[in-house]
Amino acid sequence: MTMTANIFIGSAFVAKYPAGGGNYWVPLQYLLGFRELGVEAFWFEILESTGRSDVDDSFIGQFLDRARALGIEERVILAFFPSGFQHPEDRLVYGMRPGELDARSRDGLLLNLTGGVQPVQRAPFRRTVLFDLDPGAFQIWASQWDMGIGRHDVHLTIGQNLGGDDSPVPLFGVDWKRTWPAVHTSSWPAQSAAGRAYTTITQWWCGEAAYLGDECFDCNKRNAFIEFVELPRHTAVTLELAANVHPQELEDRELLARCGWDLTMPETMVATPDQYRDYIQRSRGEFSCAKPAYVKARSGWISDRSICYLASGRPCILQDTGAAQLLPSSRGLRTFATLPEAAEALAQIEDDYPAASRDARQLAEEVFSTRVVLPRLLSLCGC
What we know:
This protein folds into two domains: about 5-180 and about 370-380; about 185-365, Glycogen Phosphorylase B (Rossmann fold), CATH 3.40.50. About 35% of the residues lie in helices and about 20% in strands. It has helices at about 20-35, 55-70, 100-105, 120, 135-140, 220-225, 250-260, 265-270, 275-280, 290-295, 305-310, 340-350, 355-370, 370-380, and strands spanning about 5-10, 40-50, 75-80, 90-95, 110-115, 125-130, 155, 175-180, 195-200, 210, 215-220, 240-245, 260-265, 285-290, 315-320, 335. The protein has an eight-stranded mixed sheet with strand order 4-3-2-1-5-6-7-8, with helices on both faces. The N and C termini lie close together (about 5 Å).
């Protein structure tokens, strides 16, 4: 195997959310990790026109300004595609001369996160890798709609348990290569002082579901948390949600408050990449439910957000999706399936919080660090 000359981390989900938040960290971890390993890597962000030039200009400006603020502007490329585009040359390129981008892409590998880079947009690249970050639901959707299956050279997923005996999701003959998500641990230093609350950051509603025959794989986090809404009454620790439960969703807000949850709005607390990191690192740990689809699919999914908590030395208590059986035992990461198990996991961590904190960081370094994940990922991609 030979090293591909240029790696492009392809994303189409950041520039359209100009504040950045947690979305920004997903491609950024891979960019920083590849660079730390000495790999020639670039972030290749796609923005398709909204149909309003003033909005497009604002999104472009804010995305590039944030790259400059983070000191990565020389490694970030933004390709803007106008409405009705049909050819690769229809784009406007920011951050790199189009001729240089074409030359580098001719022998480059595109790591297409979530499959968001469309066929016309990825046509210039020598090799392409579809990288699934939404395992279970993605495979079901891909069996029903064109998600790029069969039109990439390699198919990667963070669904470590897809294809397992307990996973009901068929793979439809696709050779999915499995990898853990990656965290750039140098960007997430372990914190010494313990925070006040166990927190998580989540989308309350997404309005999505996948259907396998008559079986519904629900993708709304709200429905998962409602199942465990009584948990604060069974633990002495503080639980906080940074979730967009809007004021008009009065019934849910009142239920969370009545059961003892603290609630804060993501747009005020974790809107930017820096705020997102600060919020995680000021937490005591993470308590989080998973999308019902992940639990039902037994995909082995673990969140790119959770591994940032781990790297920060913040223990995690997570609803099990099949990942626990594939990970080394650690006091820094405990899983649950029922409310009593969740309460017990919190109590066990609190029994020796310093040890759980140390183990959380150790797990991140040994399993999820870009230094561990990315060399294997490149090997899976044939590099």
